[in-house]
Amino acid sequence: NLLYIRNWWFFMCESWVSNYIEASKKFEKESLNKRLKEQVYQAHAIATAIYNKTSKDPNYTKDEILQLIKESIRNVRFNDNLGYMFMYTLDGKNILNAQFPEVEGQNHWNYKDSRGVFITQEMNKILSQKDETYYEWYWKKNQGDDREYKKFGFFKKFEPLGIFIGTGDYVDEYEKDLKEKILFKLNTQLSHIKPNSFWVKAL
């Protein structure tokens, strides 16, 4: 029965597509986690090296050490320059924000994101119990745009100076890139079949 074979074939294709999409989402999320963690670990290693070199030198104050660390990681960028580093003291003072330098020196202890969450207060609470964490929050994306976008990132405490170093990726950019990768793969693997609405909804 040709109709049965056709229906079975499309069922198998949709099953494969569904499994592939879920596997791709899992793989890409794990890759994102790894990439963010590696970026912060690299910045943390730079901070550690500078601190070890200068902390016992009486010619350097704490503020001067922080300044050295800040400028050493300011230009660390990734993900087409959307990924950048930031540093906060555990009591909410911004030390570094490579994308929005105008906020440096401001205390964000009472700053709430668009969900109404006190971000730095949450970080203080979390990092008082462990040295590092993944986290979701909302923040601006571009200069001159006051809208906040969901971010997913990784923070790590730098105990000697009472600060934490972090970075993140904008979720909408990550999901856009993920969809493009998946659709490209599907179009390559199943070029002989016209994509249907199931594929789009599954993404």
Short précis:
The protein has five helices and six strands; from the N terminus they run ααβββαβββαα. By secondary structure, the protein is an alpha+beta fold. Strands 1, 2, 3, 4, 5 and 6 form a six-stranded antiparallel sheet that branches.
Q: Can you offer a commentary on this structure?
A:
With 203 residues, the chain is α+β, with helices and mostly antiparallel strands. 49% of the residues lie in helices and 20% in strands. It is built from 5 helices and 6 strands; from the N terminus they run ααβββαβββαα. The protein has helices at residues 2-54, 62-73, 119-127, 171-189, 197-202; strands at residues 77-78, 83-89, 94-97, 132-140, 148-158, 163-170. Strand 1 (77-78) and strand 2 (83-89) form a beta hairpin. The protein is elongated, with a radius of gyration of 22 Å. Mean pLDDT is 86; it is low at 1-8.
What string gives the helices and strands in order? HHEEEHEEEHH
Helicity range of the residues? 40-55%
Structural class: alpha+beta
Rg from Cα: 22 Å
State the major sheet. 6 strands, antiparallel
Average the pLDDT over all residues and give the rounded result: 86
Entry keywords:
203 residues; disordered N terminus; alpha+beta; 6-stranded antiparallel beta sheet; elongated; 6 strands
Could you outline the blueprint of secondary structure elements for this entry?
Elements: H1 2-54, H2 62-73, E1 77-78, E2 83-89, E3 94-97, H3 119-127, E4 132-140, E5 148-158, E6 163-170, H4 171-189, H5 197-202
Antiparallel strand pairs: 1-2, 2-3, 2-6, 4-5, 5-6
Helix pairs in contact: 1-2
